[in-house]
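My current task is to audit a protein record that another person submitted. I have pasted the whole thing underneath without changing anything:
***
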Amino acid sequence: MGMKVAALAGGVGGAKLADGLAAVLPPEDLTIIVNTGDDFEHLGLTICPDVDTVIYTLAGMAHPESGWGRRDETWAFLETLGVLGGPTWFRLGDRDMALHVLRTDRLRAGQPLSQIVRDAAQALGVRPRVLPMSDDRVRTIVRTIEGELSFQEYFVARRFEPAVVGFRFEGAASARPAPDVVESLERADLVVLCPSNPWVSLDPILAVPGVREAVSRRPVVGVSPIISGRAVKGPAAKMFQELGIAPSPVAVAEHYHGLLAGLVIDKADAALSPAVEAAGVRASVQPTWMRKPGDRRRLARAVLELAAELRRQPAAP
């Protein structure tokens, strides 16, 4: 398609679209900037769930059913941990552990996360560039009716049961974008907001100083993570409802007000296309459910086609 793309991603949906983009773009034309607000410390290890999900997905190693973790995983470590009375609420597979241990060791030696991510991606055969949003510590805190919870406690340990009342991104205000994050955005012909949870997957990236500003200067196309009022995976729709917002592609368009030029919405929500456009965002109606690898490529092409269509539009007088 002849355009450089920077994609903002988090979660399984974000990883799948990133994989689709990687299949239809030359690797040198694609940069994926990944949420690290989900990162946390567990059993003395630094865990980076979204970064690892993106890398495993692009490497063809992700678990085909869950979308997270590695395929052909074994669980001897976790089983033994449970026998010893250790915490097993966060599932760490035997193959997955190698990356966590190596990353933690290198971080303690003073190496930046971005370098560790680059090396892991290259070692696993990932050709597009994968960048964490920041080398600095940023942690998503979920404000609930029961008080504040760290993201993984809310998402995994509590299975996103407590109703949310808001979010904050601890450390974001003083964080710096990882090397080449802002530069990749400035070089991009298109910024893609993947179908990730707006509140806890993409907002943390946009909260890092300089990122939202860089994104706002580029053409931006997104994919709605909401289909027929529901999220394909995870608590995005539940979060919208608990915050008093009806979950829909219209709500997604309004959430990114001032950033989005176009939004791909699912065929099931075709009737909402006029309302999306009334919010100042061009709507493209496509099948957006990514059940198979072919669906990822098709959706990626739809995103690029919408961007090309927007580029052909005459400028407003």
